[in-house]
Amino acid sequence: MINEFKETFGIDGHVGFHFGKGHMPKAIIENEFASAEVYLHGAHVTAFHPHNSSPVLWMSNIAEFRHDKAIRGGIPVVWPWFGPHPNDDTKPQHGFARISEWTLVSTTALSNGFTQLRLQLSDIETTQTLCPRPFELELSVTVGTQLHIDLVSRNIGTEPFIIGGALHTYFSIGDINRITIEGLEGREYLDQLQGHQTNLQKGTITISEEVDRIYFNTDDECIISDPVMKRHIHVAKMGSNTTVVWNPWIAKSQHMSDFPDDGFRTMVCIEATNAVDDVYHILPGEEHTLTQIISVDDKY
Length: 300
Ligand code: TA6
Description:
Layout: H1 2-9, E1 15-19, E2 25-30, E3 34-39, E4 44-50, E5 77-78, E6 103-109, E7 115-122, H2 125-128, E8 135-143, E9 146-155, E10 161-163, E11 165-172, E12 180-182, E13 188-191, E14 197-200, E15 211-216, E16 222-226, E17 231-238, E18 242-247, H3 249-255, E19 267-274, E20 280-282, E21 287-297
Antiparallel strand pairs: 1-2, 2-3, 3-4, 5-11, 6-7, 7-8, 8-9, 9-21, 10-20, 11-19, 12-16, 13-14, 13-15, 15-18, 16-17, 17-21, 18-19
6-O-phosphono-beta-D-tagatofuranose binds near residues 93 and 244.
């Protein structure tokens, strides 16, 4: 399998393939700007490391690499619903895209020195029980001075369908008690820990307890200021008007078997999301693109 990937999609000095954890195939991307890793399981980006900074994505050191489980950390692809299924709790939390095996479609060394991978998931028997509408889902990963992720949902059937989802990105930070997150000042949010009570974000976000918030009516860029790692992480997005900010804090970290008890101290999730009223009705033949663009500046 790996040799077939290498022959068909390998690009000398830019794209290689290996069996990663759990003996799952992954693409290794390397260029003059950064390195990255993408597992075919869940089309899951597990690493983005700009050469002029430290790794940007947080990964659990006890993540489980199993076909029936999402990899903990990196960028889980949440689709076609965010959170629990709207009316069937037997269906997986955050949809099925992140626990499906995707197909690699292309690898490209772009003229600007960036490297692009495209992966696809289409309606196969395992997904038809979960998504009764014919669909095509594509993830495009472009690695360079920034990490650009596009999640394209295509309706290839004859009936309209509604989709939600998220690029559920885990960011690596120096100390949760010392970061601030700008960009959502003055926005309202649903507090998932307070029965979806609506609150107003006053000033920049600081975190000193479990946080699980869905900010709505926002297409804003967020900026994580990290005084320990002396950098800012810029998180821009398109095709989304809801942003989720999550940190599990102590109790929830201890409750998750694939999340280290002290993991909450060095991670925060900022998620480009389509949820609540920000879901998309896609007509036959049409598509929706959810984009997240991640970059780092060390001008601290
Ligand atoms: O995005 C925040 C959230 O919805 C939290 O409520 C928490 O459940 C988190 O996602 C992780 O979910 P997971 O299914 O990956 O454990």
